[in-house]
Amino acid sequence: ISATIIMSKLPNVTTSIFTVMSKMASEYNAINLSQGFPNFPVDGRLTDIIAKLAKENVHQYTPMAGYPPLMNQIANLVQKSYNRIIIPETEILVTAGATQGIFTSILALVKAGDEVVILDPSYDSYESPVLLCNAKPVRVTLNDDYTPNWETIEKACSSKTKMIIVNNPHNPTGKILTESDFLHLEKLLSKYPDIIVLSDEVYEYITFEEKHISAHTKNFLLDRCIMISSFGKSFHITGWKIGYTVAPEHLMKEIKKVHQFLVFSVNSISQAAISQYLDVVDVNLLGKFYQEKRDYFQKLLQNSRFELKPCEGTYFQVASYANISNDDDVTFCKKLITDHGVAAIPISTFYSDHKDQKLIRFCFAKDDFTLESAAKKLCNI
Fold first, then answer.
1. Beta-carbon neighbour count of residue 57 at 10 Å?
2. Which residues pair with 167 in a beta bridge?
3. Cis peptide before 172 (omega within 30 of 0)
4. Cα 181 to chain center, whole Å?
5. How far apart are CA 77 and CA 150, in angstroms?
6. pLDDT tens-digit map of 221-250
7. Which of 65, 106, 284, 373 is deepest in the core (most CB within 10 A)?
8. Alpha carbon 238 to its chain's center
């Protein structure tokens, strides 16, 4: 009996580089600085809250858009952080991770034949939902210093452009957008009044010398911007897969239509736990916490042959290995695992054209012992 022939909707999608490198790290018992997840304990206050809640009546469906106390807490958090007042009932959606918020927003608002501008290097979850909408991803490469080239971005826009996706602070580069960038964005949107901005700000509280400028603070964006945030990233609980989306009512109405059939409602106990945790946690301390890790990791590698690039936010450090090898970055990362026992991510995999500048990404959201052990190996190369 012959098998049914299925035409793939995503024929070019293969196993993600994060899965490949983490699998290799496990096989070779290498230190995993590739995939972006912390390996240190969760705040004891949060685990105490969830232990207490486990015995309470919080195990059934929440309302579709989110647990009401959590939605109120999110509104308070946005007001405290960005001085923006939002209406919980109509402008907030709790999502099963930021990735689901991104997917749902694109699926709800992008139609066949539309175009979506994506700035490379880019997170790999941006393009696939665009393709599933039978729309066209338009990949625009950032400058070599990872600043946006607004002239190139504007040339990529047209009457077909439905959305532009920005990631700030930026994964994998650690860059943050400047006031000048927002002025250029405002000018661009004045030319194309129908373009929606999807602002992925999952690392919003992990910034260092300079705080990132949120789209929440820009009045010209508020009626046409979807904000993506992540409790998983902020509170190093990535396995909980919980985030939230903020959008004006006319956009959120459409996003909720897709969400109710994709997820309906998000894990109830995690929503209840975070709503209580937000009463006791100070998100403004997160930047200091991760800056200490960044600085320590950079200090550990100062005598290595790697050239470390500026890191303004996120928990990722980009490094050049040009002084070490002529291998392409994928080959180098595989050898880094097999020959030296450390896993990293090649930056070329974040580009549509696999642009290779001999750069790799380390995750420094690890305990000191892990960073020290990895650095010792890296300094011996």
1. 8
2. 200
3. yes
4. 19
5. 31
6. 999 999 999 999 999 999 999 999 999 999
7. 106
8. 11
User: 171: alpha, beta or left, given left = phi > 0 and alpha = psi -120 to 50?
Assistant: beta
Q: Greater confidence, 166 or 39?
A: 166
Three-state SS string over the chain comes to CCCCCCCCCCCCCCCCHHHHHHHHHHHCCCEECCCCCCCCCCCHHHHHHHHHHCCCCCCCCCCCCCCHHHHHHHHHHHHHHHCCCCCHHHHEEEECCHHHHHHHHHHHHCCCCCEEEEEECCCCCCHHHHHHCCCEEEEEECCCCCCCCHHHHHHHCCCCEEEEEEECCCCCCCCCCCHHHHHHHHHHHHHCCCCEEEEECCCCCCECCCCCCCHHHCHHHCCCEEEEEEHHHHCCCHHHCCEEEECCHHHHHHHHHHHHHHCCCCCHHHHHHHHHHCCCCCHHHHHHHHHHHHHHHHHHCCCCCCEECCCCECCEEEEECCCCCCCCHHHHHHHHHHHHCEECEEHHHHCCCCCCCCEEEEECCCCHHHHHHHHHHHHCC
What are the beta bridge partners of residue 94? 244
Q: Cα separation of 234 and 348, whole Å?
A: 26
Cβ burial of 288 (10 Å; 0-12, 13-18, 19+) is exposed
Cβ contact 313:203 at 8 Å: yes
Contact 116, 110 (CB under 8 A): yes
pLDDT at 20 over 90: no
At 364, which amino acid appears? F
Residue 78 neighbours by CB under 8 Å, 6+ apart = 84, 86, 216, 246
Cα–Cα distance, 355 to 372 (Å, whole number): 31
pLDDT at 96: 98
* pLDDT score at 28: 93
